[in-house]
Structures are given as structure tokens and as C-alpha cells.
Amino acid sequence: MRNTRTVNRNHIVVAALFLIFTLSFVGSVIAEETHPHVITTEWLSANMKRLDIRIIDIREKVTDYWQAHIPGAVYINPEALRLSDRGVTVKLMPPEALEIMLGKMGVSRMMKVVVYGEQSDPKAAYLIWALDYLGQSFSGMLDGGFNKLQQEKRPVTQRYPRARPAAYTIFNLHEQWRAPLRAVKRASEEKSSVIIDVRPLEMYTG
């Protein structure tokens, strides 16, 4: 009986050490290969000339982009991401349409995508969410948006970037990033669930 307990304890210790080693290894790989969803202006300034990075400007007015934008940034109007589906407004465009759109903008699935809008702009976060849903390997939102970059007097331009079309291929949609209406209704009735409304305060209060 003691021998069995000793063996079991040894197995537990070995398993625990293996788990710690695995998590440490995975953590180091993640630190090297990915980046948090919030990108600093310092990181962007140091990496913007890399060929595997695509910067996307999603500010409301295209005239703002024409006036000044981050070097290398392509523009997308935020309303281009949404459509009316069976009478329900502002739903995310179908994946097939997003594939074409992103490919035309020179975005590939393995690229590092950095999105920026105005300061405290939810539209940039919306695009990040859509990219997560599509399975983009790397995407992040610029901390402070274009406003912070201007305040720091970092380089801007009026020139269009040389963005060649790319083949954007979706392998697996990450359905866990989307919550159907029935799931939200069920969550609203469960005490263990929390629903967070990220809309601006004036929309939340009505």
C-alpha cells in the first residue's frame, strides 16, 4: 500500500514538473511569436518598416486619412465591415467577403496587423475582434490611437502605401469569439455570467 502511494506521489510530482516546464516553454514561445492586443507607439515606430506588418487606419472619415496617416497604413471605412443580414443591421460581413477585402488591402493571415483609429475609438477594437474570429495570427490595436502618435510628434504622411494584394485564406473560423443571441439571453439569466456593454456611455444610458 505504501509503495502504491509512493508511486502515485512520484507520478504527481513528475506530472507537475512536466506541466510547469510545458507552461514555461509555451509562455516563452508566445512571448516571442505573439504580442498583446494593445500595441505601443514605441513598438510600432521600431517595427513599422518590417515587411510582415500591415498597418490599418480605421478612422471614421477618409479625409482624415488623406490629411495625415501613419506611413505604410492602408485605409478601411468602418462601415465596410458591416451589413444588414435578414433585417438585422450592422452585422459582421460574411467571412468570404472579409477574405476578399483583406486580401485587396494586402493583408495575409500570417501578417502582423496593427489597427488604429481615434483615441478611445471602439471601431479599432471591432476590427481586432473580427480578425480574431477569422483566425489572424497576430493583431493589435495602437494604444492611444492616432491622437497619441501625433502628440508624440511621430512621422506621418499623405502618401498612399505600396500595398500589393495578398491571398487571405481562412482555415478555421474561431466561433468561440462570437455569441449568438440565444447564448446572450441565456447568460443574462444566469447569475454566474457577466455581460459587459462596451458601447459609449451615452449609448448605454440612452
Question: Can you walk me through this structure?
Answer:
With 206 residues, the protein is of the alpha/beta class. 43% of the residues lie in helices and 14% in strands. The chain contains eight helices and seven strands, in the order αβαβαβββαβαβααα. The protein has helices spanning 2-33, 41-47, 62-67, 95-104, 122-134, 145-151, 181-188, 201-205; strands at 38-39, 53-57, 73-75, 82-85, 88-92, 112-116, 138-142. Helix 3 (62-67) links the parallel strand 2 (53-57) and strand 3. It is globular and about 50 Å long.
Summarize the topology.
Blueprint: H1 2-33, E1 38-39, H2 41-47, E2 53-57, H3 62-67, E3 73-75, E4 82-85, E5 88-92, H4 95-104, E6 112-116, H5 122-134, E7 138-142, H6 145-151, H7 181-188, H8 201-205
Parallel strand pairs: 1-7, 2-3, 2-6, 6-7
Antiparallel strand pairs: 4-5
Provide a brief overview of the structure.
The protein is of the alpha/beta class. 43% of the residues lie in helices and 14% in strands.
Note the main attributes of this structure.
43% helix; disordered N terminus; globular; alpha/beta; two-stranded antiparallel sheet; 7 strands; five-stranded parallel β-sheet; single chain; 206 residues
Mean pLDDT: 83
Terminal CA distance: 68 Å
Query: Which parts are unreliable, with pLDDT below 50 for 5 consecutive residues or more?
Result: 2-34
**What count of helical segments does DSSP give?**
8
**Helix-strand pattern, N to C?**
HEHEHEEEHEHEHHH
Share of helical residues: 40-55%
Main-sheet strand order equals: 1-7-6-2-3
Number of strands: 7
Broad shape: globular
Largest sheet, strands/sense/barrel: 5 strands, parallel
Helix/sheet category: alpha/beta
Strand composition percent = 5-15%
Rg, nearest Å: 22 Å
